[in-house]
Write a structure and sequence with these properties.
The chain has an eight-stranded mixed sheet. It has helices at 8-18, 25-37, 42-51, 60-80, 83-112, 122-141, 147-177, 183-188, 224-235, 272-275, 310-314, 332-343, 352-361, 372-379; strands spanning 197-205, 212-219, 243-247, 250-253, 265-266, 282-287, 293-304, 317-322. The protein has three domains: 1-81, no CATH class; 93-188, no CATH class; 197-328 and 367-379, Roll (Structural Genomics Hypothetical 15.5 Kd Protein In mrcA-pckA Intergenic Region, Chain A). It has 14 helices and eight strands. Residues 181-188 have low confidence and may be disordered. The longest helix has 31 residues, at 147-177. By secondary structure, it is α+β, with helices and mostly antiparallel strands. The two termini are 38 Å apart. 51% of the residues lie in helices and 14% in strands.
Length: 382
């Protein structure tokens, strides 16, 4: 964290990502500016911002780091805040935040009612996801001072009432569908179906800085089990251990790995399309319950399959990434941190146990290595 002390926004985003929060620093800044515009303080901004997605569940160290970074971010925003200049977009920002909060509250209500993605109408949920992405993009545009940003703001001001009406109608359609027979819907979500969407996902290993991440493109008819195998390949894990996904409060596992799913869903029959994911939604993937390698999967982009070319529609690709994956069975994030520290020390300073650990690691291990071509050669098998 110390190396990022001058970048409080980066620290805030890193902690929120580690915690799997749906909020990012862009939304938090919007709430801060709303508080400044109305003469309120930081605590008011935080209460408003995190009410909809729920409280931040952090350990003591994360909570302290987050609070310190948020305070520095607040000080930066407050120092540069121009209330007169903010007047033009303040009302639009309030409307955007209200719509985002309304949709998030409703999504949480689905989780609280125990509703599964396959019980919901896919088309309407996808359209709601697109609206959510548009609202967040518009919120970001408020921070831009160029002609494109101003044009986007003007367009949104003219259409926001229509967006609000569309969201209301879609939610009503979903509510009307809930409780109806959805067997046909489930049949259409079969792994054998053609993909309806193409997903760009950013997979980030939590609790490690600088971050280790991969950006992958996956067709929507791939199952969660297949996504698990893709993550294993792009992160260069060896698939030696158990794993699980957690999405919207539901666990998904491979029934071949455990005797009893114990309330979890079967990941081998659930496709990405069936989950009706939203842009900017965050999923959780844990590999090796001993070392506890936790990954955040951010849905960065959702493209209709009909708009994609044939290669994008049917193939898996790693688009970018950073740093090598830790070796298996090295003790989790903290054990890996110890290994990295040992790599920096002169060999003469190592005791016998430390030298043995480095011998186990191997001289060829480079924590900064990342070979995009090699990873995609592996993905050619899909």
């Amino acid at each position: 964290m110390a190396e990022s002390a001058g970048n409080p926004r980066g620290i805030v985003d890193a902690i929120l990502e580690d915690l799997g929060s749906m909020v990012d620093s862009g939304e938090l800044i919007a709430y801060m500016k709303r508080a400044l515009h109305s003469g309120q303080g930081l605590d008011d901004a935080l209460e408003d911002c995190f009410r909809a997605p729920g409280p931040i569940q952090a350990n003591a160290r994360q909570a302290a780091d987050f609070r310190a970074a948020v305070r520095r971010l607040w000080d930066q925003i407050e120092a540069g805040y121009d209330r007169g200049g903010d007047e033009r977009v303040a009302a639009l920002r309030d409307q955007l935040l209200s719509l985002i909060q309304r949709q998030t509250d409703w999504i949480r209500s689905l989780d609280q009612r125990g509703l599964q993605p396959r019980q919901l109408p896919r088309q309407q949920m996808q359209q709601l996801g697109q609206l959510s992405g548009m609202l967040n993009a518009s919120l970001e545009a408020l921070e831009r001072d160029d002609s494109a940003g101003k044009a986007q703001i003007d367009a949104m001001m003219e259409t926001l009432d229509h967006v609000a009406a569309a969201m209301r109608n879609l939610i009503e359609e979903v509510e009307a569908h809930i409780g109806s027979d959805s067997q046909k819907q489930s049949d259409n979500n079969s792994p054998d179906a053609e993909p309806e969407s193409i997903f760009v996902l950013k997979v980030t290993l939590q609790d490690i800085r600088p971050p280790i991440w991969r950006r992958v493109r996956v067709p929507g008819n791939y199952t969660l089990y297949e996504l698990h195998m893709i993550i294993q390949d792009v992160m260069e894990w060896e698939d030696y251990h158990l794993h699980a996904f957690r999405i919207n409060g539901v666990n998904f596992m491979d029934p071949e790995q455990v005797d009893d799913l114990d309330g979890a869903e079967d990941e081998t029959v659930v496709t990405l399309d069936a989950l009706m994911l939203r842009q900017k939604q965050k999923l959780s993937y844990t590999y090796d319950f001993g070392d506890n390698w936790r990954h955040t999967i951010m849905v960065e982009q959702i493209v209709p399959a009909v708009d994609a070319d044939e290669d994008e529609r049917y193939s898996v690709r790693c688009l970018a990434g950073r740093r090598a994956c830790p070796p298996e069975d090295c003790g989790g994030p903290w054990g890996y941190a110890d290994l990295l520290e040992l790599l920096q020390r002169p060999e003469a300073e190592l005791d016998s146990d430390e030298a043995e650990r480095l011998e186990w690691l191997g001289e060829s291990f480079d924590p900064e290595a990342f070979d995009l071509q090699e990873i995609n050669d592996t993905l050619d098998e899909y």
